Amino acid sequence: MPTWPARDERGNALAALCRATQRDHSSYALVRTRDRAHELRGGESEVGTARPSKATDEMIERARTEGRPWRMLDEGDVDAGQAGVNPDERGVVYEGLIWTAVEPGGEEDFGPLYDFGQPNWGCVEIQYRELR
To answer: Which of 13, 18, 64, 72 could be a cystine partner for 110, CB 3.0 to 4.6 Å?
Structure first.
């Protein structure tokens, strides 16, 4: 059964490493499959949005068909004022699929966080689903 890693299990150390290096936005593609901020607050949904702008159509299709599931979290701000939030959902802003040109676990895995998660919602963490 697929599981998400415990929050902060891996994100903090790798996030710091990624911030210290420059990413090549052309080495990954992602597609958003869930926009929880939209679910909670309304407005325009970003489900189906593909990024980054340098990604080719082929890369985006690979993200849709071969992508690894991810989710992006803020520090709980998205849930502010919401009653009855499932603890497993607290802080989740976006979910999606990512394809990278290199093996998983590299700097490219943090591209979505720095490309749109931090600037748009102040996201602080990205998690990848572990398949067991």
So the answer is: 18
- The pLDDT tens digits for 79-107 are 888 888 888 899 999 999 999 999 898 88
Phi, psi torsion values for 95, nearest 5 degrees: -135, 160
Cα within 13 Å of Cα(26), Cβ side: 2
Closest alpha carbon to 31 in 75, 5, 73, 66: 66
Angle at 79 between CA 42 and CA 33, to 5 degrees: 55
Q: Contact 92/39 with Cβ under 8 angstroms?
A: no
